């Protein structure tokens, strides 16, 4: 009898993935460990860092793409240039109204037209600078509209200013295109457009002043009929578009900063729901190989139960828990098997020891012959026992390694019953078969299932005497097939019905003692269950109403999926 070791009962329920409390660990240490959980997620979890990094990379690419495409500048530039064209054209129309239709006109010479007075009487837009030239390119009038307030955009912050400066520096490197007139002012840009207007175009020029601010200029002709008598040029204020672009960019950058904070927060939440459980599962899986950890948690390894999660981590937790449970079941089974083997081997060894000891003092030859028979019987019993134990111990691994195939169950049973039926008839036992005519295809290991059926048939024959009968019949029921083995022997004792499939259990007549190891039915059950089937035993009674009536024989049923 095995005595259960209870020295480590107190720690046997430690759940891996949580903080372990050992005699050397204080409550304060445990509390500090749990408080550092959020820090450990980012600092020690590569998965958490990858989640945050990839989320930020996607966000950076999105914002960088918006800035690279520069929709703000392109749209604002187009709007501002169109506005300047419209304003220059309106001013030119004012001058054209004052010009006589047929008389020669020179804006520089007067001719009844005062360009500067006309320009002064007009209301100009904020930030616009207007120049009027005659056909020789001489400036005859100049006026500037109300100044623009180009202060720092509202909502600007240190962070957005820093990001904006980084982007502007990068964009200069990535955008090699230069302005039409570098180091220019409004007048210089306007003069650069004169030749284009005389050529019949309505040109536009861009420039950058000494402070690096961008400005635009457009020109429109003053016509007398079809003849150009002057040119009106309008220039924007330096940095006007830059200011508007910067203002739009400030808003985008502020949203970018908010998006980064939200992305990091959501990434940490996502990491805590992924990285932490995976870390706990990894710690639980690694504990079995860590001898030092086993000293801390001497009880059984327990995987955190995350099966309530409807995702892959929940499935992984369930799979690991099932694997660990199966592993411990196998360990327990091996321990029980080893104990049973030791117990079964000790019986014939004790008998051998007794027989050998008795031979030393036996005087008569007939006593020596009887003791030699006992020794021979026990040696054969040990040999059979060791062979069966070896087969049983290798069965699990062999069932996994062998490839399952589809085969005709009835064809196999016909071959077995033909051979074993002749053997039963030679012992005076009637052998009856009732097998369907249509093939029944099953999927599995044909040789292993044949081993089960041979064992059940020979087992039934061994309990029969001359004049008894053994019957094998098969019935198919929807998605399963039942293979039944019946005999008219003494039946199975009621107390043995729940034990006959246990290892080394044998309920035999006195004359058959020692002839069987008690592993046959246990091996059969193992093979049938490996195929997803079931096996059970029962007594055949004259009526089910009276369970106390003497059995008419025994029945073994094997159910297999089809």
From TrEMBL:
E.C. designation(s): 2.7.13.3
Matches recorded under SUPFAM superfamilies: ATPase domain of HSP90 chaperone/DNA topoisomerase II/histidine kinase, Homodimeric domain of signal transducing histidine kinase
Keywords (alphabetical) are: Kinase, Membrane, Phosphoprotein, Transferase, Transmembrane, Transmembrane helix, Two-component regulatory system
- Coiled coil feature spans: none
> Mind telling me which Pfam families this protein's record contains?
HATPase_c, HisKA, Sensor_TM1
Q: What does the UniProt entry say about where the protein is found?
A: Membrane
Q: Which reaction does it catalyse?
A: ATP + protein L-histidine = ADP + protein N-phospho-L-histidine
Q: Where is the Histidine kinase domain?
A: 340-562
**PANTHER family recorded:** SENSOR HISTIDINE KINASE TRCS, SENSOR HISTIDINE KINASE YKOH
- What protein name applies here? histidine kinase
- Which species is this record about? Tropicimonas aquimaris
């Amino acid at each position: 009898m095995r005595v259960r070791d209870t020295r480590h009962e107190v720690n046997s329920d430690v759940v891996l993935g949580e903080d372990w409390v050992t005699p050397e660990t204080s409550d304060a240490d445990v509390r500090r460990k749990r408080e550092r959980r959020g820090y450990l997620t980012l600092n020690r979890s590569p998965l958490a860092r990858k989640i945050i990094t990839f989320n930020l990379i996607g966000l950076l690419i999105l914002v960088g793409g918006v800035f690279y495409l520069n929709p703000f500048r392109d749209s604002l530039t187009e709007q501002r240039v169109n506005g300047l064209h419209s304003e220059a054209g309106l001013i030119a129309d004012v001058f054209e109204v004052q010009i006589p239709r047929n008389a020669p006109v020179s804006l520089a010479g007067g001719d009844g037209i005062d360009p500067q007075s006309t320009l002064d009487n007009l209301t100009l837009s904020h930030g616009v600078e207007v120049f009027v030239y005659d056909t020789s390119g001489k400036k005859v009038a100049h006026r500037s509209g109300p100044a623009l307030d180009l202060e720092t955009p509202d909502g600007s912050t240190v962070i957005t200013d820093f990001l904006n400066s980084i982007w502007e520096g990068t964009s200069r490197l990535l955008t090699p295109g230069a302005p039409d007139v570098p180091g220019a002012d409004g007048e210089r840009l306007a003069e650069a457009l004169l030749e284009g207007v005389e050529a019949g175009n309505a040109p536009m020029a861009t420039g950058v002043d000494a402070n690096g601010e961008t400005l635009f200029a457009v020109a429109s002709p003053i016509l007398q009929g079809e003849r150009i008598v002057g040119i009106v040029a309008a220039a924007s204020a330096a940095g006007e578009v830059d200011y508007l672009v910067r203002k739009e960019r400030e808003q985008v950058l502020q949203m970018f900063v908010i998006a980064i904070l939200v992305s990091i927060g959501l990434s940490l939440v996502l990491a805590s729901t992924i990285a932490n459980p995976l870390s706990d599962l990894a710690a639980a899986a690694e504990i079995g190989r860590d001898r030092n950890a086993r000293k801390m948690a001497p009880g059984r390894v327990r995987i955190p139960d995350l099966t309530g999660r409807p995702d892959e981590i929940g499935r992984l937790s369930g799979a690991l828990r099932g694997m660990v449970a199966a592993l411990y079941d196998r360990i327990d089974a091996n321990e029980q098997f080893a104990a049973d083997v030791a117990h079964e081997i000790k019986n014939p060894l004790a008998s051998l020891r007794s027989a050998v000891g008795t031979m030393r003092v036996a005087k008569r030859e007939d006593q020596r012959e009887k003791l030699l028979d006992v020794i021979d019987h026990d040696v054969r019993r040990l040999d059979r026992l060791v062979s069966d134990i070896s087969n049983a111990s290798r069965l699990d691994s062999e069932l996994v390694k062998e490839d399952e195939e589809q085969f005709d169950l009835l064809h196999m049973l016909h071959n077995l019953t033909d051979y074993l039926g002749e053997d039963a008839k030679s012992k005076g036992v009637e052998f009856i078969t009732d097998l369907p005519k249509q093939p029944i295809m099953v999927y599995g290991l044909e040789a292993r299932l044949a081993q089960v059926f041979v064992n059940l048939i020979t087992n039934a024959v061994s309990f029969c005497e001359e004049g008894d009968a053994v019957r094998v019949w098969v019935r198919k029921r929807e998605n399963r097939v039942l293979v039944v083995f019946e005999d008219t022997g003494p039946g199975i004792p009621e107390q043995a019905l729940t034990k006959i499939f246990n290892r080394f259990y044998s309920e035999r007549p006195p004359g058959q003692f020692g002839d069987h190891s008690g592993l046959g039915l246990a091996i059969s059950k193992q093979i049938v269950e490996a195929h997803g089937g079931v096996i059970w035993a029962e007594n055949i009674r004259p009526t089910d109403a009276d369970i106390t009536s003497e059995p008419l024989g025994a029945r073994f049923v094997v159910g297999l999926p089809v």
